[in-house]
Amino acid sequence: MTITVVRAARVLDVASGVMREGAGVAVREGSIVAVGPDLDGDTTLDLGDVSLLPGFFDVHVHLTGLRSYDEGRMPDRETLAVRAAKDCERLLAAGFTTVRDCGSAIALTLRPLVADGTIPGPRIFAAGPAICQTGGHADTHHLPLEEVRRQPDTLIADGPWECRQAVRQAVRAGADFIKICTTGGVGSERDHPQDAHFTPEEIAAICDEAHRLGRRVASHAQGTAGVKAAVLAGVDSIEHGYYLDEECVAAMRERGIFYVPTFALKTFFERTTDGGHGLPEWRVRKQREVVGAMSASLKLARQAGLTIATGSDYYGPPMRGHGDNADEPIAMVRDGMPAADALRALTLNGATVLGIEDQVGSVEPGKRADLVAVDGDPLRDIEALRRVRFVMQDGKVRVNSH
Ligand SMILES: [Zn+2]
Q1: What are the strands, taking DSSP E only, across 212-353?
Q2: 36 three-class SS
Q3: Is 47 inside any structural domain?
Q4: How many whole angstroms from 241 Cα to the centroid of ligand 1?
Q5: What is the pLDDT of residues 208-265, one digit of tens each?
Q6: Ligand 1 center to 35 CA (angstroms)
Q7: What domain range is 44 assigned to?
Q8: Which keywords are on file for this protein (predicted)?
Q9: Any domain includes 319
Q10: Same domain flag for 18 and 152
Q11: Which pLDDT belongs to residue 303?
Q12: What is the tens place of the pLDDT at every residue in 369-402?
């Protein structure tokens, strides 16, 4: 069994947030067997003056193949799937070795194709269809309801038993976890981020059913009331959480609920707030409303010590392009988060949200060899995350341009 030693000027100990000088990582059969100076192996990859980090996580993506908010005539599903496969390649080239897809049937198709090496891409954890109430965030409000019911990306459910059935259908379709919507959203036409969706009984039914089937529940929840209802009913993560208050973060802390703030959207909202860019008027209006609240929520979450993970909510270029997903930790640092915390959100915390922190998420013996080398030191200059020179996934070199 051959041992490959990957050497770099710096290796990040992500748990402590300390950069170790002049270390190497020994890899055998896809796993890290040793970390430290003076390691011996059959082959050595000396990457030189770079920082070696654990593989990156984006725990809120949508692999949809969409390219704008308004494509006119919707492309056929084959076209969307090929585009989404291209997005997988871009994600991996940008250092993202694992993603969690929060709603897309195409992600279920791509998952085994990445796993068996047919296409390059991050390891995919997929929700498959997102579950919402009639007129909820995952519903397409201007289409006839029957047409939405035929779409594979959404399950509409009303009442606890339909909610249980929807969970069973998502699991039947191959869901690794369950994505629900307990508020309206910026991106859905005829609701509002502050609207609470699903009754407490419905959310509790979803969580009970999902947990009995061994799946975690991620809730799209923007307004305070819908966050609280989701937290109290037993979800495992809050996605977006634009309007958190003290009570929300205290309850999340107490229950160990993860927070995925999708903070890159703040920059996106600011950039597109003057309209144009093909965005409908109602979306721009809601973007303006929520953007002011986002920093305060992230600050509350940080102060409460919640486990925060990076999730860009990107779906495709040019607006929210896969490959630019480092926008998320960079936006967090610009907003005041220490770089060491943002790097933990990007790696170990992402693994924790997925429940695979014993296998990936840090550069430690016993873990899978997912390694990313960047030019510069991201603890001092977070923009270094954009300068990916080398990517190893499961011990295989995927990118090497150093
Ligand atoms: Zn999303």
Answers
A1: 217-221, 237-240, 258-260
A2: strand
A3: yes
A4: 12
A5: 999 999 999 999 999 999 999 999 999 999 999 999 999 999 999 999 999 999 999 9
A6: 36
A7: 3-54+362-400
A8: Hydrolase
A9: yes
A10: no
A11: 97
A12: 999 999 999 999 999 999 999 999 999 999 998 7
Percentage of the chain exceeding pLDDT 90? 93
pLDDT of 71 strictly over 70:
no
Does residue 85 share a domain with residue 221? yes
Q: What is the residue type of 347?
A: T
* Residue 63 covered by a domain: yes
Which amino acid belongs to residue 238? I
Task: Tell whether 37 and 76 lie within a shared domain.
Answer: no
Q: The CATH number of the domain where 264 resides is what?
A: 3.20.20.140
- How remote is the CA of residue 144 from the centroid of ligand 1, in Å? 22
Q: Determine the average pLDDT of the residues in 106-128.
A: 98
Average pLDDT over residues 276-303: 93
State the maximum Cα–Cα separation within the chain, in Å, rounded to a whole number: 65
Centre of ligand 1 from the C-alpha of residue 44, in Å: 41
The dihedral formed by the CA atoms of 78, 79, 80 and 84, expressed in degrees to the nearest 10: 100
- Quote the ligand 1 centre to 158 CA distance (angstroms): 21
Is position 355 within any domain? no
Residues 150 and 76 grouped into a single domain: yes
Taking the centre of ligand 1 as the mean of its atom positions, its distance from the CA of residue 60, in whole angstroms, is 6
How far, in Å, from the CA of 255 to the mean position of ligand 1? 23
Q: How far is the CA of 274 from the centre of ligand 1 (A)?
A: 22
The single-letter DSSP state of residue 101 is E
Dist. CA 139–CA 131, nearest whole Å: 9
* Ligand 1 midpoint to CA 343 (Å): 21
Gap from CA of 175 to ligand 1 centroid (Å): 16
- Among the candidates 299, 325, 351, a domain finishes at 325
Instruction: Please report the pLDDT score of residue 170 as a whole number.
Output: 98
- What is the 16 CA–ligand 1 centroid distance (Å)? 30
